[in-house]
Design goal:
The structure holds 2 protein chains of 2 kinds. Chain A is of the alpha+beta class. Chain A contains 12 helices and 14 strands. In chain A, the strands form 4 sheets. Chain A has a 5-stranded antiparallel sheet with strand order 4-5-10-6-7. In chain A, strands 11-12-13-14 form a 4-stranded antiparallel sheet, sandwiched between helices. Chain A has a 3-stranded parallel sheet with strand order 1-3-2, covered by helices on one side. The N and C termini of chain A lie far apart (44 Å). By secondary structure, chain B is of the alpha+beta class. Chain B is built from 5 helices and 5 strands. In chain B, helix 3 packs across helix 5. Chain B starts with a strand and ends with a helix. The model of chain B has no long low-confidence stretch (mean pLDDT 95). At the A-B interface, strand 1, helix 2 and helix 6 of A face strand 4 and helix 3 of B.
């Protein structure tokens, strides 16, 4: 790892000021992508700004029809939260499938979606539930947040503070982990919202990152059942193709994971 | 440079290290606590697992500076007054190791696993919870047996 300067921010305002004062600053939350990348010398930020100690970024609040998760809340807290399990069990279950117990003790929601790794799980829930991303500057709808592979709508000096998830009528997430790395080769989050609308988000499969499947949404809107997925034609166009799976294989995984998710919801 | 004050295995320690120093390197090289191993250095193998404020974390994926004020337990801190921790004793009894390289991380993970999930833990859950600990000797069967055995003892001692 190249030399860097570590800072611990006590507030969002201080983090923003440290970030704007740095030549090439990076925010450190769980650090489970950033630190390994720095160790491989693929990233060499001049300054590291640790935001995990900022109280307002931590915690879970479930009230009414919304579950709000602070951006620096570790996955393990979401996985085990009675409030999340009660309101959106699919979200707690998804958090419990990320990485391994040690990763979940440290990794954060904000870090996961800001990084927008195409194989990450949380983007599936954020887009699948139509959550709202709160930052220090504005609120961003999930549909506008993810803009590509490792790309989001965030500005350079913008910090995610929390994510507000609407409580659905039914939801579930199913993923096919790579047998070796355990990263999602395809993950599908299905949600039937309380207004009857259906959202389906696919992660791990798109060559432009997480996306919504309008074909699956249409099929499940008229018939919320695993059988409804059978008649849907999922194109391999625009899907990732790599040593782990071809685009056609991932297209089939999307259908299979969608069926499993609907059955589990 | 960062000056880090923390509690390691019940003792207050202070160390001055480079900002880029990893916590595992501070433990091993500055404090000489070489029981915490570095297996993969890519956050996958779990040989470096320690407890930080009661949570099992990979010490190779934390900066030392992040441990400011933290309460750290390493494998060296488990035994009390010369008596092995029940988990260590169970690994010995059930031969839960072959080459022994992954063992400190396995034991630290296992202790936190039982603290978190209780002593009634079943075999399938133990196997699932060991996802972040890799044994290159593939000696998982006895590791799982050891954890199950220790879980019962940790429960009865509690």
């Amino acid at each position: 790892m190249y030399q860097t300067t570590y800072h611990k921010a006590a507030s969002v305002a201080e983090a923003v000021s440290l970030l704007s004062g740095a030549e090439d600053g990076k925010l450190l939350a769980g650090g489970h992508t950033l630190l390994p990348t720095m160790k491989q010398r693929l990233a060499s930020p001049s300054d590291i700004i640790d935001i995990t100690g900022i109280a307002e970024l931590n915690g879970i609040d479930a009230s009414g029809d919304t579950v709000t998760v602070g951006a620096a809340t570790p996955h393990a807290d979401v996985e085990t939260s009675a409030a999340v399990k009660g309101a959106i069990p699919a979200l707690a279950a998804l958090a419990g499938t990320i990485g391994d117990p040690h990763v979940r003790n440290v990794g954060t929601l904000g870090g996961s979606i800001a990084n927008a790794d195409p194989a990450a799980d949380y983007p599936g829930a954020v887009l699948g539930l139509g959550a709202t991303v709160h930052t220090n500057q504005r609120t961003i709808a999930a549909d506008d947040f993810f803009t590509g592979l490792f790309e989001t709508a965030l500005n350079d000096d913008e910090i995610i503070t929390s994510v507000a998830f609407p409580v659905p009528a039914q939801a579930a997430y199913a993923k096919f982990p790579n047998p070796a790395s355990r990263y999602s080769m395809t993950g599908v989050f299905v949600a039937k919202m309380k207004d009857g609308s259906v959202r389906v988000a696919v992660t791990g499969a798109g060559d432009d990152g997480v996306f919504r499947s309008s074909a699956l949404e249409a099929a499940l809107s008229s018939n919320w059942s695993a059988d409804a997925v059978d008649g849907v034609d999922i194109s391999a166009d625009g899907l990732l193709s790599d040593i782990h799976a071809s685009a056609a294989y991932r297209a089939n995984l999307i259908k299979q994971m969608a069926k499993r998710a609907v059955a589990a919801a | 440079m960062a000056t880090v004050s923390m509690t390691v295995n019940g003792k207050a320690v202070q160390a001055t290290v480079e900002d880029r120093t990893l916590l595992v390197d501070l433990l091993r090289e500055t404090l000489g606590l070489t029981g915490t191993h570095v297996g993969c250095d890519t956050s996958q193998c779990g040989a470096c697992v320690i407890h930080m404020n009661g949570r099992a974390v990979k010490a190779c994926t934390k900066l030392a500076a992040q441990a400011e004020g933290a309460d750290i337990t390493t494998i060296e801190g488990l035994a009390t007054d010369g008596a092995l921790h029940p988990m260590q004793e169970a690994f010995r009894e059930h031969h839960g190791l072959q080459c022994g390289f992954c063992t400190p991380g396995m034991i630290m993970s296992a202790v936190e696993m039982i603290d978190r999930l209780g002593s009634d833990i079943d075999e399938a859950t133990i196997r699932e919870q060991l996802e972040g600990n890799i044994c290159r000797c593939t000696g998982y069967h006895n590791i799982v047996k050891a954890i199950q055995s220790a879980a019962g003892q940790m429960g009865s001692n509690a």
